[in-house]
Design brief:
Largest interface: A-B, 42 and 42 residues
Number of domains of chain A: 1
Radius of gyration of chain A: 17 Å
Pfam families (chains A, B): Rrf2 (PF02082)
CATH superfamily of chain A: Winged helix-like DNA-binding domain superfamily/Winged helix DNA-binding domain
Helix content of chain A: 40-55%
Structural class of chain A: mainly alpha
CATH class of chain A: Mainly Alpha
Oligomer: homodimer
Number of strands of chain A: 2
GO molecular function (chains A, B): DNA-binding transcription factor activity
Strand order of the largest sheet of chain A: 1-2
Protein name (chains A, B): Rrf2 family transcriptional regulator
GO cellular component, one term (chains A, B): cytosol
CATH architecture of chain A: Orthogonal Bundle
CATH topology of chain A: Arc Repressor Mutant, subunit A
Shape of chain A: elongated
Number of helices of chain A: 6
Order of helices and strands of chain A: HHHEEHHH
Chain lengths: 136, 136
DNA sequence: CACCTTTAGGACCAAATTTATCCCTTTTAT
DNA sequence: ATAAAAGGGATAAATTTGGTCCTAAAGGTG
């Protein structure tokens, strides 16, 4: 359970690739897709999300492509994951605290703890850190 | 992301109901389903899994039904969740450490941390605790 | 034994989600 | 103009989710 989907994996691979380019260097979606080993059209959708959320800057036409909108050290893994997978919510009842069935559910507190922990971990990892990691 | 499915929710509701019964009291699947507000045939499958894993004891025929196989204090939320949702694996690459694409993936360590944290949280909560919780 | 009750297990199915692909539009540089 | 790129919508196959249904097996009871 709790699995990241392909979309999430692709998103991470793609943005790490961008972070590994020389600062300011514009990358084509075709280039990122090839390097990250991700279907190009699918990755294009992912980067559209990134652009809408302000994680990357896109430009069209000749010489266009994608660049990080902020330093990689200012983009967290949480932002990247949530950009394509939505908010980290281990249980539906955490949305608006609506557990239904009369009264809050008994596991509410546990899931809130899980959510907080996972968010903290992912917030503590930047794309810069990942881009520099050699292994592990 | 990371959402528990209905199956997981139903599993938790069902086993908490069992834990709230007087010790040794046998419950019918129809009774548990009605009380937990879960489709009966679906819950039956869930309790089959519980029985196979030794979380509950089942008996057939007149007077049959389900009882906890151990004290509720000795059944963790993790066991219940994993019984129906499979192991807690935030990323596929944690299965056998096979990240593919030549070399371990850069996020491997992060996902392992997430996995460990979540497992620890869920291992720290017993069904007895949940059964006694009034709210939150 | 015959019959009823209850779980076990397999087959099946509809809906939702995932994992894409395709095509046309818009923007921009030359 | 034209070519190069991303933007955005429609579509679709595959997989997963969320069930249902039917028959079998096991265990009591008269």
């Amino acid at each position: 359970m709790m699995e990241l989907t392909r979309k999430g994996e692709y998103a991470i691979r793609g943005i790490i690739y961008l972070a590994q380019q020389p600062p300011g260097r514009v990358s084509l979606i075709s280039e990122i897709a090839a390097a990250s080993d991700v279907p190009q059209t699918f990755l294009a959708k992912i980067f559209q999300s990134f652009a809408k959320l302000g994680l990357v800057t896109s430009s069209r036409g000749t010489g266009g492509g994608f660049v990080l909108a902020r330093p990689a050290s200012a983009i967290t893994l949480r932002e990247v994951v949530e950009a394509v997978e939505g908010p980290i919510l281990p249980n539906r009842c955490l949305i608006g605290n609506s557990c239904d069935r009369g009264g809050p559910c008994l596991v509410h507190g546990v899931w809130r703890t899980v959510q907080t922990e996972v968010v903290n971990i992912l917030d503590g990892v930047t794309i810069e850190t990942l881009a520099r990691t050699r292994e592990s």
